[in-house]
Specification:
- Pfam families: AHSA1.
- With 153 residues, the chain is an alpha+beta fold.
- It has 4 helices and 9 strands; from the N terminus they run βααββββββββαα.
- α1 crosses α4.
- The relative contact order is 0.24.
Length: 153
């Protein structure tokens, strides 16, 4: 895939990788979409081939669903999903492959989220939808939760 079709957000999180991973997967609804929106995971089968179905609720009653399939779920390191396969391995109109990963860095953790798009047009649409602001806010929310959790321990 050409690099031009990938959008990326990264943050240094001042918390150990174990804490970041725990918050990423066990408190996902708290950081997954920018507040005041909220996320509800109806299905979240954390394994390769597992389904993920999330409803995002907006402050004005808006509801946006995003369903997909995990392509990888490497405990403590990364999860990867796509909206190109949904439900019981049914093909769907593909938009992207999402990759959320962490790696140790110094005394903390490097968090990186990538959106790889099938086409340049899809990448451009995602940029125009506010990728940098939206995914950046989610990264900030994750960072705050992780650093707060570390400070409390």
């Amino acid at each position: 895939m050409a690099d031009t079709n990938e959008l990326t957000i990264t943050r240094y999180i001042d918390a150990p990788p174990e804490t970041v991973w725990d918050v990423m997967v066990n408190r996902q609804e708290e950081w997954w979409c920018p507040k005041p929106w909220r996320a509800e995971f109806d299905v979240n089968e954390r394994r390769p081939g597992g389904r993920n179905e999330v409803r995002m609720h907006g402050p004005e009653g808006e509801v946006h669903t995003h369903n997909g399939t995990y392509l990888a779920f490497d405990d403590g390191r990364r999860f990867v999903s796509t909206d190109a396969i949904q439900g019981d391995f049914e093909p769907a109109d593909p938009f992207m492959v999402g990759i959320w990963e962490i790696a140790p860095e110094g005394n903390g953790t490097r968090y990186t989220a990538r959106a790889r798009h099938w086409t340049e047009d899809a990448r451009k649409r995602h940029e125009d939808m506010g990728f940098a602001e939206g995914w950046g806010t989610c990264a900030d929310q994750l960072q705050a939760l992780c650093e707060q959790t570390t400070a409390e321990t």
